[in-house]
Amino acid sequence: MNIFAKLKKSAAERRAVRELGALDDRALQDLGISRANIQAAVKGMVVFG
């Protein structure tokens, strides 16, 4: 993966964390994510279900 792809991926992850962080706890619960697991969910390190 080249540097530009890494930068693009990093920017997308930061945006996703920011957008999920803006949701209320009920919306996060509907998605199956706790506030403490937002970053892990964005990085794909949380198992849903």
From TrEMBL:
Chain ranges of the YjiS-like domain: 4-38
Q: Which Pfam family is one of this chain's hits?
A: YjiS-like
Please give the superkingdom of this protein's source.
Bacteria
InterPro entries according to UniProt? YjiS-like (IPR009506)
Q: What is this protein called?
A: DUF1127 domain-containing protein
Species this protein is from: Shinella curvata
Q: What is the lineage of its organism?
A: Bacteria, Pseudomonadati, Pseudomonadota, Alphaproteobacteria, Hyphomicrobiales
